[in-house]
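[step 3/7] fold_predict: job queued, chain A
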Amino acid sequence: MIRTPLRPLARILPARAKGENPDAIERENIRLRHEEMQDRARARAESRLLVLGLFFFCAFIVVGGRMGVLAMSEPVEPVARAIGAPIAAQRADIVDRDGRILATNFETHSLYAQPPQLIDPLGAAKRLSEIFPDLDHDRLVRDFTGERKFVWIKRKISPEQKQAVHDIGEPGLMFGPREMRLYPNGRLAAHVLGGAGFGKEGVNAAEVIGIAGVEKQFDTYLRDPANGGRPLELSLDLTIQAAAEQVLYGGMKLMNAKGATSILMDVHTGEVISVVSLPDFDPNDRPRPPTSGEPADSPLFNRAVQGVYELGSTLKIFAAAQAIDLGLVNADTIVDASGPMRIGRFPIGEFRNRNYGKISVSDVIVHSSNRGTGRLALMIGAERQRAFLDNLGMLDPTPFEIVEAAGGQPLFPKRWGDLSTVTISYGHGLSNTPMHLAAGYAAIANGGHYVSPTILKQSGPQLGPRVMSQRAAAAARDMLRAAVLKGTASFADVPGYAVGGKTGTADKPKARGGGYYEDKVIATFAAIFPSNDPKYVLVVTLDEPVETSGPEPRRTAGWTAVPIAAEMIARIAPLLGLRPQVEPADTAGITLTSN
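[step 4/7] structure written:
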């Protein structure tokens, strides 16, 4: 910086020539220099004050904004935080085939107490027992007045309950955020969904884990953040599931049955469109597993995949289809269904001791002849029969994607001799789940391919290996249709939908001591529709039904399971997009000879 000299020569010389004092010039320059320095210092100070003022203004804005946010937010209790891995609580939704919510997440709160901070522990215990009647008042008093520092009160509470607890005004009662599993449709598809509960749990969060059904089967997928929250798509149709549950519940009550199950399955994809097991439960309030009694008496018992039953005459169609597939007979081949018939020392009888004589293979199915089916089975032989049923998946648990399906282990004799061959052919001596039966009938309906039942939505046909020829499957479908038109399943003839099916009534085995009940049965009806172009299989099974409208109680499937299945088909077929069609009638036998 260039500074002006205090005694500039250009001014000093003229001043001396005029006789003036040069010191006055120096004093004037010093004054001007000081004034200039003061001006610069003032400007610097003003700039600093402006910056400091702006800083304090911004700080005030930030603090004021934060205070506003806190004033508008919901108050939360202070909690102690510990260093550790955070709990991953987010869980993907479960939806039906059309994207409708079956299971989702819901934000709620937990309730806990810190007894040392309670002002009135006795009063708090009294008020809490009024808000939550299921709490033990005496235990709360012991917990609040004892040595405990922390007490869980409720793992999850509703917003109304939270407000009621908040109104108590106790600083020792605190809330923790929770994410719980919500099933907005209540009992609908309860056995498929199963339920969820809390795993790893802390004050600020809880890990939601599956405990049954698809929630447990696909627990890893539902909890995996790598899936980006994509929902699990099931094959179920919510509308059809609701209709099936309504019809089956009404039918179970009408037929005085102890329990019931139904399965609706796509014969080409294996998708289970609807599966119902009654009695059921609400997965939002899942009951505890029973500790005594029979498992089948619990509402948690899934009869569709855990109920292992002798399914009776519904298995007869497999013997007929295999015999045709092997070239041993055709639908019109005459079979001796007359009696007596014995295998070793064991007689083979008919329902109500009937004697059908010599009838066609088709009539064996129409009349549901035990002897006729048994003679077909003897033609097939034990080894080939077992291999055929094994290919149909009847000897292993179904690969259905819920954890309970693994418990549906079929029961069959270790020694598969002639007697077992005959009895198994008409549904005795081999116990399966209704899901096994649905898969077997799907193979007949789709032209001879095994298809594995699945609860997951599929993109197209999922046909497995061929288990019978297309010719044998077509003949079996015709026989099933004849059983509805002329046989034991006549109540299943739903106009416009060409239902084909087979009834099965089996005595119910005693849970203890062996033997069978004389007045308790398992009644089953397995249907395919439309039989001329099958798309779906429907299986309906009733536990201990009895129809009492007549002078004598009737327990056979034709009187119990079949009417329920017919009502269900009439109700759900339009929902499936199936239009009723008029079947071509037989000609009257008149021949036109001339115009």
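[step 5/7] annotate
The mean pLDDT is 89.
Residues 505 and 556 are 6 Å apart (CA to CA).
exit 0
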